[in-house]
DNA sequence: GCCACCGTAGTACCGCGGTACTACACCCCT
DNA sequence: AGGGGTGTAGTACCGCGGTACTACGGTGGC
């Protein structure tokens, strides 16, 4: 028995899917999620085999919801459905960890067999997208990037809005110092360091100090030993 | 009308394929090639829409035959068929320019729809292979470092004791991925990722993943953007 | 046939990192 | 004089990261 969660913001669409799936005697619809965050929460509770995920949803979109569901680490597979066969969505969804990608104008049998494939651990890609996926894959294989451009030390725009103090903090972050170490060696309170760090992350668009370390290297604020 | 050339060294196999295809009123078998060089020559003469290509053939094998057929620059698409679902063959064939890859134990309908898809410009991949293909594809995306290059990666002594898998994990750590992301995109449990990370830190003498990121840069496992 | 290693996976626990919010002194600018 | 940016600092909270341990199937070496 394959258990399915339907994530779509359109009630009519959900109804259609539910009718189709319930007509199969090897499938059960565990529930319907009208939004991305609902999908994430319900997946954590119900552990469906497959989540039928629409991409366009209010709040958390299907891509991010997929990422979080996959990150839950359970066996739940995500099958992404969308109205259009836009590549960016497909690739973003697959990068997010989805097990498949189908367009909504697929035949009912195609959807059903797609769900069964995904549930059994296989992956499915809409026929019209497989070629582009392969092309992209093949192009990735022999990629040679010699880029030997020597750029003189000019201020990277990503660091433009940082204050001197923040740039100083970022430098020692890039050298791997913990907040406690920065606090001790720069003679300020750790809470102060945290304030600086948070502002640096916000200004540079980094989600955590790891990204900041990478940024420090990429901008040559710090250099490899 | 879809025209097909059958390239297979086994007469019985060719017969089976011919019977199946001729039973369809939208398909015609233009000819049968018992070897790779025959397939190349006959394709140049007959210009079929699709070549059904066996991989294992005497003389020129299916991979090389595919490469030469694609190099002819015509509309002919190559659909590779093999008995086994060996990855090397699949990837080699796709790299050679094939439009699809199916295993011989596929259902007749799957083969027929595969031929039609390929003839119409789409690509097909055997269901059981799609997942591996996606995995390989997704794993390629973040790693802009083609260590498949001619220069063998000079082994930094600090990385000497790492296994291949650990070096792989360290690479994506160096690119800033969280454990959850590594888990999702490499399709292993987060607990597995944690085990790997802990071993990497222990082996490299890093106290946390920040130090590992720095090490990855210093050893040129990853390079600044 | 056995053993070591590897990759996988799980659980339990704790601490650092990051957020959100507030606060205040200082400096510079208008 | 007022206001905005900066550097400092605090509290409370939560989640990710890391550790310690166990476990098991596969593989390769001896």
Automatic annotation (TrEMBL), chains A, B:
Domain HTH luxR-type positions: 155-220
InterPro entries given in the database record: CheY-like_superfamily (IPR011006), NreC/VraR/RcsB-like_REC (IPR058245), Sig_transdc_resp-reg_C-effctor (IPR016032), Sig_transdc_resp-reg_receiver (IPR001789), Tscrpt_reg_LuxR_C (IPR000792), WalR-like (IPR039420)
Molecular function terms, GO-annotated: DNA binding
PROSITE patterns (alphabetical): HTH_LUXR_1 (PS00622), HTH_LUXR_2 (PS50043), RESPONSE_REGULATORY (PS50110)
Lineage top rank: taxon: Bacteria
UniProt xrefs under Gene3D superfamilies: 3.40.50.2300
KW Membrane (keyword) present: no
Domain called Response regulatory: residue spans: 3-119
Keywords: DNA-binding, Phosphoprotein, Transcription, Transcription regulation
Gene Ontology BP annotations: phosphorelay signal transduction system; regulation of DNA-templated transcription
Chain positions found as 4-aspartylphosphate: 54
Name the UniProt record assigns to this protein: Response regulator transcription factor
Organism, scientific name: Streptomyces acidicola
């Amino acid at each position: 028995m394959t258990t399915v969660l339907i994530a779509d913001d359109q009630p009519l669409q959900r109804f259609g899917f539910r009718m189709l799936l319930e007509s199969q005697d090897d499938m059960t619809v565990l529930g319907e999620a009208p939004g991305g965050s609902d999908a994430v929460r319900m997946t954590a509770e119900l552990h469906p085999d497959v989540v039928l995920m629409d991409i366009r949803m209010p709040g958390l979109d299907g891509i991010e919801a997929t990422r979080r569901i996959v990150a839950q680490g359970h066996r739940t597979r995500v099958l992404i459905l969308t109205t259009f066969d836009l590549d960016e969505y497909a690739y973003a969804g697959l990068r997010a960890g989805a097990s498949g990608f189908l367009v909504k104008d697929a035949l009912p049998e195609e959807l059903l067999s797609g769900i069964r494939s995904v549930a059994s651990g296989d992956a499915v890609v809409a026929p019209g997208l497989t070629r582009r996926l392969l092309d992209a894959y093949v192009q990735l294989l022999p990629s040679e990037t010699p880029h030997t451009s020597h750029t003189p030390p000019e201020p990277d725009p990503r660091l433009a809005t940082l204050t001197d103090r923040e740039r100083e903090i970022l430098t020692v972050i890039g050298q791997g110092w913990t907040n406690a170490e920065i606090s001790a060696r720069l003679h300020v309170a750790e809470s102060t360091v945290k304030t600086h760090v948070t502002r640096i992350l916000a200004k540079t668009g980094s989600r955590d100090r790891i990204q900041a370390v990478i940024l420090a290297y990429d901008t040559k604020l710090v250099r490899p030993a």
